[in-house]
Amino acid sequence: MELISRSADEVSRELVRLVVESRDDLELGSHEVLAQLVRRVASFKCPTTNRELAKPVLESLKGLVGEEQLSDLKELLLGERDDGLIDSLIGCGDLQEVTPAGNHGHPVGKQLYLGAPAFLRRDNGDCLVIGIRSEGRRLLPDFEDRIEHTGHVRWFRSVEGESPASILGGLELRELLEHEWLRRPVEVTSEELVSKYDQALNRVNPIGGGQIEGLELLDSGRPSRNYRARWGEPTRTHTGNYVARRPQAYSAPRWCYVAVDSGQVKFALDLPLLDPFWARGCDEAWRLQAAIDKNLNHPLVVTVTGQDSGEDLLNILSMPPPRWVQRRLDTVGRVIQPEKGWPRWCFRRDDVDEEIRFLEAMMFCRVERR
User: Fold this and answer.
1) For residues 232 and 89, what is the distance between their CA atoms, to the nearest angstrom?
2) Alpha-carbon distances, residue 46 vs 19, 49, 133, 139 (angstroms)
3) How many C-beta atoms surround the C-beta of residue 176 within 10 A?
4) Who's near 177: CB < 8 A, 6+ residues apart?
5) Dihedral of the CA atoms 316, 319, 324, 325 (nearest 10)?
6) CB atoms near residue 131 (< 10 Å)
7) CA–CA separation, 328 vs 182, rounded Å?
8) Beta carbons of 336 and 343 less than 8 angstroms apart
9) Which of 2-6, 18-22, 63-67, 195-199 is modeled with the greatest confidence?
10) Where in the chain is the domain with CATH 3.30.780?
11) In the Cβ-directed half-sphere of 247, how many Cα atoms lie within 13 Å?
12) What is the pTM of this model?
């Protein structure tokens, strides 16, 4: 048997062709390729955690990319605060994040499971395909080259004379209805939402000692456009109620809502509050922070920029979008994934106004048209 020597670049190009069959213009570190690698590893490794899922993906890329790029890819996969590519795959339904019940019914560390194969049909016939089959099996046997990979999501496009929904149903993908897919919270005003959490916070027992080691606050007093710069440890200047994260011994930091007096924590309420076995703490926290910012007159900023293509580019500047927001925008718009940070979306001009109204009502944002 003859051994053939291949360069790292040649192996990288071949790997890209193997994992994304319908594209030959992608880089190894692109969101499309990384998302496919995560899906492949997950099909063998789930149930698992975000970090354990990322490890084999990064191991497979050693020798193909440099140490600096490998570090960047790790940050891209995991993010800093529930905003990495793996979280985007949870958001779109390819992975399911579950909090199993431990002793005495209390939630324990979250685990990732495979999302069931399914699809969501748009009015124009295009279908968003969702889920991962176990043990590396193809999601759409004989139709993999028809999948359009855009950022972290996958589309099966409508072709004249055929019904994508019939094809996908024949491949044992379940059609999802929009309401069961989005599963969003009820619409309330920003004042009503903050009041609900404040009342719940006031009912919990006070914390002895007034300190939580390693606690980080999302500072409502800092400019809302720089999300990461708003995080910091409590100081004597902090008095009021804040979204925060506290360390846990064997899991990622826990999202919470805390009452602080001159830097000392008086009360703490763990999130999620509404549904601890389904909702994510970060989703509740981000919406609560958006409501707090609106009440302080520096609301979440969403920009809408006209494109030469005739589309409008929608960008949420101030913080990552909750899962139910991302799911809605993923299904209506076209995902644009930047090198860092959360996604942006392109919309047809006819669609963008409805999405703006949705964000204004549910995330209390201010829209800037450019």
Assistant:
1) 28
2) 19, 8, 11, 16
3) 18
4) none
5) -10
6) 20
7) 7
8) yes
9) 195-199
10) 301-369
11) 7
12) 0.71
Q: Decide: 98 and 86 in contact? Cβ < 8 Å.
A: no
Whether the pLDDT of residue 114 is over 80: the answer is yes
CATH pick for 301-369 out of 3.40.1440, 1.10.760, 2.120.10, 3.30.780? 3.30.780
Per-residue pLDDT at 101 exceeds 70? no
Six-digit token string for 245: 């994260």
Beta-carbon contacts of residue 366 (< 8 Å; ≥ 6 apart): 299, 300, 301, 302
Specify the amino acid at residue 281.
Answer: G
For residue 232, the cross-strand partners are 217
| pLDDT, average across residues 93-115 | 76
**What are the φ and ψ backbone dihedral angles of 158, each rounded to 5 degrees?**
-75, 135
Residue 158: its H or E element: none
Assess contact for 267 and 204: CB atoms under 8 A: yes
**Which residues face 348 on adjacent strands?**
311
